[in-house]
Amino acid sequence: MSQPMKNPDADLPVVQRLASIFWPSFLTAAGFTVIFFTLFDPVQLSLISGGPAITRLGGYTIGFFSFWALTALSCALTCYFRRPCKPSGYKPGHQSGNT
Amino acid sequence: MSETKENKTPTQSDDIDQVLYKKREKIYPREVHGTFAMLRNTAMVTLLGLYYVLPWLTWEGRQALLFDLPARKFYIFGLTFWPQDFFFLAVALIIAALSLFFFTALAGRLWCGYACPQTVWTEIFLLMERWVEGGRRQRIKLDKGPKSLHTLRIKATKQILWIAFSLWTGFTFVGYFTPIHDLWHHLITWSLGPWETFWIFFYSFATYGNAGFMREQVCIYMCPYARFQSAMFDRDTLIISYDPKRGEPRGSRKRGKTGKEVGLGDCIDCKLCVQVCPTGIDIRDGLQYQCIGCAACIDVCDDVMDKMGYPKGLIKYTTENAMEGKKAHLLRPRVIIYSLLLAILVGGFIYGVATRVPLEVDVIRDRNSLYNETDAGLVENVYNLKLINMDEHPQRYRLSVSGIDNLRVVGPTDDIDVQSGAVVDLPLRVQVDPIELKSTSNEIVFHVESKTNPAIRYDAKARFLGPVVR
Hints:
The complex is a heterodimer.
Chain A: H1 14-39, H2 42-49, H3 56-81
Helix pairs in contact in A: 1-3
Chain B: H1 15-21, H2 35-53, E1 58-59, E2 62-63, E3 65-68, E4 73-76, E5 79-81, H3 86-107, H4 110-115, H5 117-133, H6 136-144, H7 149-175, H8 180-188, H9 194-214, H10 216-222, H11 224-228, E6 239-242, H12 244-247, H13 259-262, H14 272-276, H15 296-308, E7 315-318, H16 320-323, H17 333-354, E8 359-365, E9 372-373, E10 379-389, E11 395-402, E12 408-410, E13 416-418, E14 423-432, E15 441-450, E16 457-465
Antiparallel strand pairs in B: 1-2, 3-4, 4-5, 6-7, 8-10, 9-10, 10-14, 11-13, 11-15, 12-14, 15-16
Helix pairs in contact in B: 2-5, 3-17, 5-7, 5-9, 7-9
């Protein structure tokens, strides 16, 4: 690449950028859901927590989407942090052309 | 030919970067006929048939294949699995992964080309698309041409077909996890539960999106296997390859002329191999990770070779070694190791399932007190036993305790009836003379044995606590 500071993601197709956040998180969330609900029964969990009564299917669904939200957040942060930092000689207000 | 303009596939390796980053161009795969197309269609019909039919089968009065999530039990024909059997699920998944490695080492991306749900559903969606919109040329014309009522009608018909098929797919999917007959009844009486409804739509949407729109992008951007499958390849793995020695230099010529007569190779550069490719690559550029090994290019090229009067096999299933004229090896260390591991795991799995004891005993100590002393001066511990009968039939159990001499059990110990698939709580008090206690914490064992079938027995360990021993 001619510009060393270029965001490596900038040229990726949108599909690939979205997939790299929502797809790995989906897979790991699915795995977690299976393991978690093998160990814990959502009906028992809702009894212990004293929260509103819930059906098993509802418990699995909420569990899966909570896991997915968390893993997607983690993937998004990874994508965010792997962007290059500002160069060492960077001064605020100086035009860098890279935002 | 106007169609050749559509094929902006790279011809040099320097273009690869550019191709990776360019905007996706919609791919219009041309229809293929031939040996491998027939194999692929057979696989598609068989797999889709299995998917849509299996949940409707019954076995001894219940759904034959049901991963009953609401009841936390998996039924696979005569077998019932419980959350306690998670180990078997894990082993089954490892076996599935290893089989994938094994077949990849042996025959390349067989899975991708013939069996992957993404391929299979894309094929059926393409079939519907072809049926409504016509062949490749008509589809391109329809998309590039002016919008009219006619094109709108055609597009709408396709969408309705796709959506209906997706919804049926979603319904079937949920039918694997909740009893499908009940689900059907709820559906026609318009009384589906909110979660069932949600998952039917969610899965339908995933099917519609992946098979209708994402297509090859799923393989390229989302599939982990596509990225690492090359690690299982070696020089003897079956791949689909173009023979450049025979084909090059490529070029068009009149029918009936041999390559030698016009100073060209056997490739007539008709670009049909590119047009049939579902991932839009040019196989003549060499092995590429986008190639899902569907062999559509083999079929279409063989056809062309036939028409030209050339021998078939300009594009064919081959190995790197075979292409270089070296000897091919079927048995390589890689293949032997994969098959050995597979044999051990499958053997262990079958043995494990066959000798599985359909009884589980959980011992829970009373949390309120470490121990009590009775009026008679005995030390007493309180337990709650959970007996889970995982057998197909009701069982009558007997219970005994060992570990300390002269233990007494207060509570039901004989003729404990548990229905098939039921859980029974047994509150028990275990008493012993403090003289018998060797330490403050002692191990005791609850033995539960079926009187109906003595082969069903389970030993559960527990702690018996007492006063500090002088």
